[in-house]
Design a protein that fits this description.
This protein is an alpha/beta fold. The longest helix is centred in the last third of the chain and has 16 residues. The mean pLDDT is about 95. Strand 11 and strand 12 form a beta hairpin. It has a single domain, classed as 3-Layer(aba) Sandwich (UDP-N-acetylmuramoyl-L-alanine:D-glutamate ligase). A 9-stranded mixed β-sheet has the order 5-4-1-8-9-10-11-12-13, with helices on both faces. The radius of gyration is 18 Å and the shape is globular.
Length: about 300
């Protein structure tokens, strides 16, 4: 079984399905609702487990009720939480999220800025036998440790690069693969033209780079030339967590030895299926569902 270590944030999402995103200081009634685990790294870890990989998560949470919910939800998904550190005096992160009729989301997140960012303990605790490492840029210190460890072990080190990207500058220097969101890429380069921005990011980092741009698909470099993999067209219900599960599926595919284009296509199928289901990461498909979807598109 392929083993993937993910490093970064874990939260609880309180998700409300509404006709339109709230604009006024009034009361609104939800059409549906869910309380589910979230966070870039945690969602990716859950996706790895659901897709048949061995999943380990390293994250920082508080010793509180929200933290209990985070760990319980991940354990239910089959994620190994041995490296989830409960920081004394800290408060776990949670979000209030609205999802409209088009599947777009609005997020208000609480993050305890006093929760220790220290990652020295992680460097001493990283296990052997990992096939790839994925880190988000929300915990820059942890991402730096994770990407350096991946480079030292000659395994894929994938950075999920969200704004503000330069806070994770050390991780950028060590990552073998950097997957930018469109916002993250613009933040790094200051350029609105994503093609030019991606070329600049490749020159700066020396890594394999791509940019995920929602329904516009994925731009990347293949054999030194710009390449594109289109997004799959689906009826979108909920985009919450789609980018996170894309990164988890991409890391798993790389850890299995798939090439970059095949990994992108697999990850895009997983994210597309997730978007057809309400409830954040609970909509992540199984491996069998993702592979059946891909067969239907060939």
């Amino acid at each position: 079984m392929t083993t993937i270590l993910t490093v970064g944030v874990a939260v609880i999402d309180i998700v409300m399905s509404v006709e339109a995103l709230p604009r006024m200081p009034e009361k609104y009634r939800a059409r549906d609702a869910a309380i589910v685990g979230g966070g870039c790294a945690a969602n990716a870890a859950a996706a790895v487990a659901r897709l048949g990989g061995q999943s380990l998560l390293a994250a920082r949470i508080g010793p509180d009720q929200i933290g209990d919910m985070i760990v319980a939800g991940l354990a239910d998904e089959g994620v190994d939480c041995t490296l989830v550190r409960r920081v004394a005096g800290g408060r776990s992160s949670f979000s209030s999220i609205y999802v409209d009729a088009a599947g777009e989301r609005q997020i208000v997140n609480f993050r305890d800025v006093a929760l220790s960012f220290d990652a020295t303990w992680l460097a001493e605790a990283l296990p052997d036998g990992v096939d790839a490492v994925l880190a988000d840029s929300r915990w820059p210190q942890g991402a730096a440790v994770a990407m350096k460890a991946a480079r030292d072990r000659a395994i894929p080190g994938i950075l999920d690069a969200e704004a503000p990207v330069r806070e994770a500058g050390e991780a950028l220097r060590h990552a073998s693969h950097v997957a930018f969101s469109a916002q993250g890429l613009r933040d790094l380069t200051g350029l609105n033209d994503l093609d030019a921005a991606l070329d600049l990011a490749r020159q700066e980092t020396g890594a394999w780079v791509c940019v995920t741009d929602g329904p516009a698909g994925i731009n990347f470099f293949e054999n030194g030339r710009r390449a594109h993999e289109p997004a799959f067209e689906v009826d979108v219900i909920d985009t919450l967590g789609a980018g996170d599960v894309w990164h988890g599926a991409f890391a798993l595919a790389l850890g299995e030895g798939q090439g970059a284009r095949a990994a992108i296509r697999f990850a895009s199928a997983v994210a597309a299926l997730k978007c057809t289901r309400f409830g954040g990461r609970t909509g992540t498909p199984t491996r069998a569902e993702a592979e059946a979807f891909l067969r239907s598109k060939t």
